[in-house]
Design a protein that fits this description.
Layout (H helix, E strand, L loop, with lengths): L6 E9 L9 E8 L6 H10 L24 H39 L23 E9 H8 L7 H19 L9 E7 L13 E7 L7 H22 L1 H7 L5 H13 L12 E6 L7 E2 L2 E2 L15 E8 L2 E9 L10 H4 L6
Parallel strand pairs: 4-6, 6-9
Antiparallel strand pairs: 1-2, 3-10, 4-5, 7-8, 9-10
Length: 353
């Protein structure tokens, strides 16, 4: 509802019957439009409403913050006019910065140092069509130490590689159970933060992306981790050749009005059902605080993420770390993922995701 702010915070009380949590727990559900924040600025927002000390000491200075005045229509038109005048210069600058990287990428591809196979369309799955209005969500926490122990098995592998491997294994098991597993690997778009040191608290979206194969065609988890690590290294090399910041700047060159019109038309005609997807899902890993946080004196016990889905991409996995845990959650279209469990007779154990 664009007549209301782009954010909403809800306190949910009475969480007394959740396994692993003590009675009296409550949840703080924050919902913010992605136009206002990305994952990293979302973590900064979460830190801003929490304390490091449960005692909640009163601030030594009065709060003097005042909101800005609502901009007048004339001011908005003036800003838009000058912004449009400068847009051709921004386009030329971005293209100029990307040309050396494109040339470098072509040389690397010619030598075989970089593979361009990740530029192919992904196989179509139940998650890659027109999404509806309803969502399903769940999360599974892991011990961060265990994830790090797994990554150490494969030289130079990262925590992110392990998480992508876990997601790939979950998708493999789920789609096998439904008889819908493609022969080719499913792929995930993994956002890359391009925030510089002085931009940690900045709002808005400062992200680029890479596409990584999830190894869903591989049954052995260790072999899948080796495959995912190789895919991630290759995709990072492609992104670094052009420059992650430059790729992020390209997304700002499309006029917002034109982008909105195109998105509405894409949805209206159901175009997502007519073509192969660029990627099958999104896996976004957001490093959270390593120290305990407190809200009104209450210790935060767990931190999970939700994220938006859109036409042709009905499954997203936000990954949040907090303290000694790392939690893999999923938000999906409810019709695409009506029952997010695996049939016990097919996989031996009942599993979330």
């Amino acid at each position: 509802d664009l007549s209301k702010p782009l954010w909403e915070f809800t306190v949910v009380e009475g969480l007394d019957n959740i396994p692993g949590l003590p009675p009296g727990c409550f949840a703080l559900v924050s919902k913010v439009h992605h136009a206002a924040i990305d994952g990293m600025s979302g973590v900064e927002m979460s830190a801003a409403v929490h304390d490091l000390d449960p005692l909640m000491a009163e601030p030594d200075k009065p709060d003097t913050w005042q909101p800005e005045n609502m901009p007048r229509v004339a001011d908005l038109l003036t800003r838009s006019y000058f912004n449009n005048l400068l847009q051709p210069m921004r386009i030329a600058e971005t293209i100029g910065r990307s040309l050396p990287g494109m040339a470098k990428l072509a040389v690397q591809a010619g030598k075989g140092d970089v593979s361009l196979k990740n530029t192919r369309a992904a196989p179509k799955t139940r998650f890659n069509g027109k999404v509806g209005a309803h969502r399903v969500w769940d999360a599974v926490p892991f011990k961060l130490a265990e994830v790090r122990a797994v990554k150490d098995v494969v030289p130079n592998a990262t925590v992110n590689d392990v998480i992508l491997t876990v997601v790939g294994g979950a998708l493999r098991t789920y789609l096998l159970d439904k008889g819908e597993l493609p022969k080719e690997t499913l792929t995930a778009m993994a956002p890359i933060s391009v925030r510089q040191e002085g931009e940690k608290a900045a709002l808005g979206n400062l992200v680029s992306a890479m596409v990584v194969g999830l190894g869903t065609q591989i049954a052995d988890p260790l072999e899948r981790l080796r495959f995912v690590h190789g895919e991630a290294v290759n995709s990072k090399a492609m992104t670094n050749a052009v420059g992650a910041r430059t790729l992020a700047d390209y997304s700002k060159l499309i006029p917002s009005g034109l982008a909105g019109l195109g998105a509405r038309l894409y949805t209206r005609v159901g175009a997502a059902n007519m073509h192969a997807p660029a990627f099958n899902c999104v896996v976004t890993n957001i490093p959270g605080p390593r120290v305990p946080l407190y809200f009104c004196g209450a210790k935060m016990l767990a931190m999970y993420g939700t994220a938006p889905v859109f036409d042709s991409m009905g499954l997203i996995n936000p990954v949040y770390s907090y303290g000694d845990t790392i939690a893999v959650s999923f938000t999906a279209d409810r019709d695409m993922l009506p029952i997010p469990t695996i049939t016990p007779r097919r996989c031996g154990t009942r599993s979330r995701h």
